[in-house]
Write a structure and sequence with these properties.
The structure is a single chain. The protein is mostly beta strands. The chain is 0% helix and 37% strand. It contains no helices and 13 strands. Strands 2-4-7-8-9-12 form a 6-stranded antiparallel β-barrel. A hairpin with a 2-residue loop joins strand 5 (76-78) and strand 6 (81-84).
Length: 174
């Protein structure tokens, strides 16, 4: 032990932190096989067509980036397995706004993103049967569409064809 002499001040010993109990981090349980939850994995081929329907009117002055909502018009199957149920949500967005021209006008172009599978996953889509460019854009004016109000690029209920974007494996309900 150290002794303190005359004229010296006692210096307290440095504090030692109390020991901390360390518990191992919770380790998540291994994932259960997909089959245990009533879903299965299905391979979907590139370019397979899907009928979709526009959910809401698209104004002729819709800005780039405007989200678009569609639904699957008829269920989409691979073999006997329903991959996309009728009414499943499909998303897209405006990628090119209409520009006024002296004669005629340009069309609004959109890109499809994905659809919700029966297993709750996402299936990537495009608007063209084969990949053209980088975003598979498509005109808002549906093929064979009847004329609609001038202030609309497309009316709710308009049908379009969507196509599977690349080879994909998705979870679907059994």
């Amino acid at each position: 032990t150290a002794q303190i002499g005359a004229g010296q001040k006692a210096v307290p010993a440095p504090a030692v932190p109390a020991p901390v109990a360390v518990t191992p981090a919770a380790v998540p349980a291994p994932a259960a096989p997909v089959a245990a939850f009533g879903v299965q994995m299905v391979a979907v081929s590139d370019g397979m067509p899907i009928a979709i329907r526009l959910d809401e009117d698209v104004p002729s002055d819709a800005p780039v980036g405007k989200p678009l909502r569609f639904t699957v018009a008829r269920e989409f199957r691979v073999g006997n397995t329903v991959v996309l149920a009728q009414g499943a949500a499909v998303t897209g967005e405006i990628v090119e706004a209409a520009h006024k021209k002296l004669i005629g006008g340009s069309r609004i172009m959109f890109r499809l993103k994905d659809a919700v599978t029966t297993g709750g996953g996402k299936l990537a889509l495009r608007g063209t049967p084969v990949r053209h460019g980088e975003d598979g854009r498509q005109s808002m004016e549906p093929a064979g569409a009847s004329k609609h109000a001038k202030n609309l690029a497309a009316a709710a209920g308009a049908e379009y064809a969507a196509y599977i974007e690349g080879e994909q494996t998705v979870a679907v309900r059994k």
